[in-house]
From TrEMBL:
CDD domains: GDEase (cd01303). Its EC number is 3.5.4.3. This is Guanine deaminase. Residues 70-434 form the Amidohydrolase-related domain. InterPro entries: Amidohydro-rel, Guanine_deaminase, Metal-dep_hydrolase_composite, Metal_Hydrolase, Metallo-dep_hydrolases. The keyword Hydrolase applies. It comes from the Eukaryota. Signal peptide: none annotated. GO terms for molecular function: guanine deaminase activity; zinc ion binding. It comes from Ceratodon purpureus (Fire moss).
Length: 441
């Protein structure tokens, strides 16, 4: 059955390329009275409502948002699905935090019932926050990834995820082996990769919890399935780095541990990348790998301040993603994540213009995933995954907005600084409303 076209009318913002600083109006399309025409889950047309209204078939339903702002669905390029009950755990830096909290909670995902309840909660929470695509770590248990993809498939979302591979320095109940991690990951790839909108991500947790043999198995999977993704953690915390170098005495540096086994590349996502040396940045840039900035986590776990300007330096630009890193991160909201990114950059003497932040959350993260033609913008042919934002959602926002006339960049800054899930009026996936703030608790 071919669906009939439907219209969404309101203020619409979508990026066409990365902004070159504040005020770069050529980087986005902003329609004050715009129309999105959606058919079969994708954008069929976008433009001024006055031009498109007449093209809709008579009787086609049009949903109108009077003062809200419609932007592409947010994309979170680093999050842990089994850490919904780890978020907000007190008083520890990375290695203690993993042992005291994370490795305890993740053991519960051996139970398929816990996995499916967790997946339901997690995807509800993402959509409540306007996040329509995420790059997620599962637990070591393949059933966690089955539950996650099954739930995503039900909702029609595009998700990227993988089973964590970890075979040492963790409780026995949370470890696999090089062989079983290879076989389980391979079976999950065959079951889920490119099934509808689901994509697989080979997921060695980090160098501390994998032997050389297991990292080699991860590299073998990438060679065998060249279009799957890869995610791991890199250079988050100083004690972590020292430990890695003691475990891999032959490596030139932390990045080299992954490089030696073939884990760098344009589909590889490295969480954190806070304390990298120049030669490591050079290798990430040369291999077109992605460094994922996770500001709420880096501040909360006390890991350090990501140097975005240096990492992305045009002399050897490393590609950048933005992620929440829940449960090390403290918010599911990409708006709050952008607010904390701004503050980290302030401490580094750098700028994060609001258009750059909104670009990163949408098209920037889509391009990091090489999915710019499918998600992250509202261009014709893209999936109609979008979020309807209310810049006046709270008393503080309403009050602040009284001073802003018609300046989209100022409004975006209010949205990211003061906004969170309360500013998400509705979320749509493939043109279907999957969250409405007025109908939710
Ligand atoms: N390094 C290894 N595992 C993790 C994790 O679960 N969270 C964070 N933030 N860092 C990690
Ligand atoms: Zn993480």
């Amino acid at each position: 059955d071919v669906e009939q076209s439907v219209g969404i009318r309101g203020r619409i913002l979508s990026f066409v390329r990365a902004p070159n600083g504040a005020g770069d109006e050529g980087s986005y399309v902003y329609l004050r009275d715009g129309m999105l025409v959606i058919r079969d889950g994708r954008v069929e047309a976008i433009g001024p409502a006055s031009e498109l209204e007449g093209t809709l078939p008579s009787g086609a339903p049009v949903t109108r948002y009077e003062h809200e702002l419609i932007v592409p669905g947010f994309i979170d390029t680093h999050i842990h699905f089994p850490q919904t009950q780890v978020i907000a755990s007190y008083g520890a830096q990375l290695l203690d935090w993993l042992t005291r909290y994370t490795f305890v909670e993740e053991q519960k995902y051996s139970d398929p019932g816990h996995c499916s309840r967790g997946a339901t909660f997690f995807l509800d929470e993402l959509l409540r926050n306007g996040t329509t695509t995420a790059v997620a770590y599962g637990s070591v248990h393949p059933q966690s990834v089955d539950a996650f993809f099954a739930e995503s498939e039900k909702r029609g979302t595009c998700m990227v995820a993988g089973k964590v591979m970890m075979n040492r320095n963790a409780p026995p109940a949370l470890t696999d082996t090089a062989e079983t991690s290879y076989a389980d990951s391979k079976a999950l790839i065959e079951r889920w990769h490119k099934r509808g909108r689901q994509r697989y991500c080979v997921t060695p947790r980090f160098a501390i919890t994998s032997t050389q043999e297991q990292l080699e198995a991860a590299g073998a999977l990438l060679r065998e399935f060249p279009d799957v993704y890869m995610q791991t953690h890199l250079s988050e915390n100083l004690d972590e780095i020292a430990y890695v170098l003691s475990l891999f005495p032959d490596a030139k540096n932390y990045t080299d541990v992954y490089d030696k086994v073939g884990l760098l590349g344009p589909r590889s996502f490295f969480g954190h990348c806070i304390h990298l040396a120049e030669e490591e940045l050079q290798r990430l840039a040369d291999s077109r790998s992605v460094a994922v900035f996770c500001p709420t986590s880096n501040l909360f776990i006390g890991s350090g301040l990501f140097d975005l300007a240096n990492t992305a330096d045009a002399k050897r630009p490393v590609r950048i993603g933005l992620g929440t890193d829940v449960g090390g991160g403290t918010s599911y909201s990409m708006l709050q994540t952008a607010a904390e990114a701004y503050k980290v950059m302030q401490l580094k003497g750098q700028n994060l213009p609001p258009i750059s932040a909104f670009y990163m959350m949408t098209r920037g993260n889509a391009e990091a995933l090489s999915m710019g033609a499918e998600i992250g913008s509202l261009e014709i042919g893209c999936f109609a995954d979008f979020v309807v934002l209310d810049s006046k959602a709270t008393p503080a926002m309403l009050h602040r907005m009284e001073t802003i006339e018609d300046l989209i960049e100022e409004e975006l800054f209010v949205l990211m600084t003061l906004g969170d899930d309360r500013a998400v009026r509705a979320t749509y996936v493939q043109g279907q409303k999957v969250h409405d703030r007025q109908n939710s608790s």
